[in-house]
């Protein structure tokens, strides 16, 4: 209840002066002064378990990312798409990410290195630092000294071998095999596997059997032997490129002894292959299936498969289908696929638009570096990025990117330590420098990385499968 004296005073004042409304005069100020009224806020991060990438631009917080730690609760799939124009830091991000992941004891990485200078791939320096010899596939190397991967390696299942042979042929021909050609290939492959046991079967054996099919294979289908030979002629001509043509010396013999599939880092150096030729998607197909059957194993290791120039995969329907299966299969065994592409239009407008959409859908993490305005709008539309993120993509400076981790969108500055810098900025990578070093930020990044390593060494057994 109000004080009677206050009521009486208010009534007398109103009678003498009339009712008076109290008003507050407006205050003019600047946005810099007005922001002090609001408490500082920042979007939630991704946790503190994993590898540090850098610093969130707006909040200043450290940005930590690890698909294996996030998988399940925050991340439906561990696969990652990296986009952006050349010269903005994609190369530096890939290399430091791999180096920092390898600090964990249960990590293993395979890199398809499609770029290089001075006769070696971009990853050659990192491989040397780690004591790794890259697997350099080069059709120009003399046949007796080159490294070979055998599509008919006994480590690959019979079904996998036949699927790989079909993929090689379909990629080279640009269309699927018809039933007759597929039958000729199947009977030739079955005959080779059945009758060659003292050594590894090789592609020459398949080509020879296609040219000279067995009579019983024709009799089984009640067709003429000359028909079976005609059906397999185009298939034989395609495989002959790998045996005695421009791709010879890489897949026309037993798998080279000594390839260490247990090394922490495996680098396939494809830098000597013409990136615009049909050879590149054929190589991608062979390496993909070979890895699927020889590398990915249920041994509780977390594996990262990083592919540069990934449009060679996504732009070919047959290779894209192969890798789509690999992604689905690998997710159950702890595989994170990292695809690096310059422009999204390279894949979504290509011949494999349907397959590309499926692969993009599996990539729950998307990192976008600077792009032109038109490309940024197209990227935002396809990936479903918020408007504010699309608007800033053309304004991003080297080393800064928009990160979308299953809807958690942040702007992140990638930080590189002094120890990493000589390995990251090779001659070519200097064009992707993110600017002069910031000693304070780099010291902080290194300290965080060291702390994270000690933390994970103590708790590596509890890593999320």
From TrEMBL:
<dbReference type="InterPro" id="IPR051162">
    <property type="entry name" value="T4SS_component"/>
</dbReference>
<dbReference type="InterPro" id="IPR027417">
    <property type="entry name" value="P-loop_NTPase"/>
</dbReference>
<dbReference type="Pfam" id="PF12846">
    <property type="entry name" value="AAA_10"/>
</dbReference>
<protein>
    <submittedName>
        <fullName>ATP/GTP-binding protein</fullName>
    </submittedName>
</protein>
């Amino acid at each position: 209840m109000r004080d009677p004296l206050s009521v009486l005073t208010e009534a007398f004042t109103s009678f003498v002066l009339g009712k008076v409304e109290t008003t507050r005069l407006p205050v003019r100020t600047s946005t810099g002064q007005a922001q002090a009224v609001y408490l500082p806020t920042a979007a939630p991060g991704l946790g503190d378990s994993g590898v540090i990438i850098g610093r969130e631009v707006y909040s200043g917080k450290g940005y930590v990312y690890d698909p294996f730690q996030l998988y399940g609760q925050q991340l439906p799939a561990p696969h990652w798409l990296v986009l952006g124009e050349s010269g903005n830091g994609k190369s530096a991000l890939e290399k430091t990410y791999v180096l920092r992941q390898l600090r964990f004891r249960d990590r293993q990485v395979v890199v398809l290195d499609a770029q290089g200078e001075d006769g070696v791939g971009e990853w050659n320096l990192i491989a040397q630092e780690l004591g790794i010899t890259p697997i350099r596939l080069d059709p120009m190397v003399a046949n007796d000294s080159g490294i070979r991967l055998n599509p008919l390696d006994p480590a690959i299942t019979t079904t996998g071998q036949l699927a790989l042979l079909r993929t090689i042929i379909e990629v080279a021909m640009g269309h699927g095999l018809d039933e007759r050609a597929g039958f000729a290939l199947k009977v030739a492959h079955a005959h080779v596997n059945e009758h060659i046991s003292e050594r590894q079967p090789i592609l020459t054996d398949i080509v020879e059997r296609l040219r000279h099919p067995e009579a019983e294979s024709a009799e089984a289908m009640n067709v003429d032997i000359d028909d079976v030979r005609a059906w397999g002629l185009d298939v034989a001509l395609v495989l002959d490129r790998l045996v005695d043509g421009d791709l010879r010396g890489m897949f026309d013999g037993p798998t080279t002894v000594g390839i260490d599939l247990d090394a922490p880092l495996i680098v396939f150096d494809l830098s000597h292959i013409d990136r615009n030729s049909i050879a590149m998607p054929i190589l991608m197909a062979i390496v993909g299936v070979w890895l699927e059957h020889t590398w990915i194993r249920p041994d509780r290791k977390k594996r990262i498969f990083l592919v540069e120039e990934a449009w060679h995969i996504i732009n070919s329907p047959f290779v894209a289908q192969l890798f789509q299966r690999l992604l689905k299969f690998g997710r159950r065994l702890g595989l994170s696929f990292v695809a690096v592409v310059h422009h999204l239009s390279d894949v979504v407008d290509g011949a494999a638009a349907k397959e590309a959409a499926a692969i993009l859908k599996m990539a729950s993490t998307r990192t976008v570096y600077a792009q032109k305005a038109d490309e940024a709008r197209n990227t935002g539309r396809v990936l479903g990025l918020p408007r504010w993120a699309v608007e800033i993509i053309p304004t991003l400076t080297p080393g800064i990117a928009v990160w979308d981790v299953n809807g958690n969108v942040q702007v992140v500055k990638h930080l590189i330590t002094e120890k990493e810098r000589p390995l990251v900025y090779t001659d070519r990578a200097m064009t992707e420098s993110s600017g002069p070093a910031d000693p304070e930020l780099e010291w902080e990044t290194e300290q965080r990385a060291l702390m994270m390593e000690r933390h994970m060494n103590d708790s590596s057994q509890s890593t999320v499968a």
